[in-house]
Design goal:
alpha+beta; flat; five-stranded mixed β-sheet
Amino acid sequence: MAETQLSAASPCAHPMANPGYGKRSAPDQLPRANHDFAHLPPREAAIAAYVDRLPDGADISVKTLAKQLPYGQCALGTALNRIQQAGHLRRGRECVTADDGSSHWITRSWFSRTARDDDWWAAFTRGDVPEQRRPTRSRAHILLAALGRTAPALSLSEADCATLAPLVTEWFARGASEEAVLRALTVGLPTPVHHAAALVRNRLTSKLPPPPPPRPPLRVLECANCGAPGRPETLPGGRCSACRGETAPAQPPAPLSAPTVHDHAAQIRAAMSRRRQEAP
């Protein structure tokens, strides 16, 4: 009965998380099909199908899902853990860099319609799996639209800005700043400029900087039960060894420091000296 009610729930009315948080779709998923979650129990399959239909950025916390679906928070927490163990979900943190160069860690919930094994999630954490890139057209469009203020001869139309914005976006993707783009477009202009859009296109293409070396993303997975961070290989199925009921191996004692060793040796020598003096 609950699964029937859930199938009627509309993802369009689902709340969104704060900007930058919420659901994140994993890359390279297979097209949606009716049997995507057939290997899960009915409740978990219905919840996974609902989450799959949500857009990126949707709030998929237990508390929010409980307000939208016919399940309590405990039932949803159990279901999400089973969905995670089946390879559709991972939760953790990721270090992101803002436009001003600052970086900070944010909470992530990665969802994959296609079930992934632990090795795939480990590769994804290292950045070995390609990730969809968000376009930055608005920033590029603003730069082009304001170009005429810096160089009146390069005033562009709305259509020109829309056409040339992807070229500027590629400059940004390669690490160029807005000042570098403006300098490449405005320094040494011919007099007169007969076709501003053609000149801008030529300079954006011919002066394009080389791509920077790839940088792996900074990601940390967390245990679904207790939230403890750990390496992917220590979180099979998304759970740490303690939550799986395993006993951690005993750690060897830490080696003594040099001053401690010298102190122990001096105490032993003093004790031996006293024994020799006390001997008849």
